[in-house]
Amino acid sequence: MSYVNAFIVGGLICVLGQLLMDGTKLNPAQVLVIFVTAGVVLTALGIYEPLVRFGGAGATIPLPGFGYSLAKGVFKGVDEKGFLGIFTGGVEATSGGITAAVVFGYLMAVFFNPKSKS
């Protein structure tokens, strides 16, 4: 059942993003910022945590999940380091995912011939 929950939650997040791009004049970069910010705000308000428990990877993999990880990292950083944790907690919590994205993106560019859209 957890696979179904993840599919439903992740699918609804993606549908919301597509509706924002189709129904408004927002471009994909603006939707990205809105989703990450929404993930942070919903986590701070305690709303995103139940969604993560219900949807699992369907809630943590899309863009609001990145905001969720940032916020959780800041909370942990503040608990451990005080005021300095505000600046370091989010970076420490998400550094593994960011590093993987950079490394694998670089490897794909090395092994394949990237082309720009014309």
**Cα-based radius of gyration, to the nearest Å:** 16 Å
Helix-strand sequence: HHHHHH
Give the structural class. Answer: mainly alpha
Number of helices: 6
The structural domain count equals 1
Q: Please tell me what the overall shape is.
A: globular
N-to-C CA distance: 44 Å
Helix content: over 70%
The chain-level mean pLDDT equals 92
> Strand content of the residues, in percent?
under 5%
Tally the beta strands.
0
The largest β sheet comes out as: none
Residue windows where pLDDT falls under 50 for at least 5 positions: none
Structure description:
- Keywords: Membrane, Transmembrane, Transmembrane helix.
- The chain crosses the membrane at residues 6-24, 31-48, 54-71, 83-112.
- This is Stage V sporulation protein AE.
- InterPro entries: Spore_V_AE, SpoVA.
- It comes from Alkaliphilus peptidifermentans DSM 18978.
- This protein has 118 residues and is mainly alpha-helical.
- It has one domain.
- Helices cover 82% and strands 0% of the residues.
- It has six helices and no strands.
- The protein has helices at residues 2-23, 28-44, 48-55, 57-60, 63-81, 85-111.
- Helix 2 (28-44) crosses helix 5.
- The protein is globular and about 50 Å long.
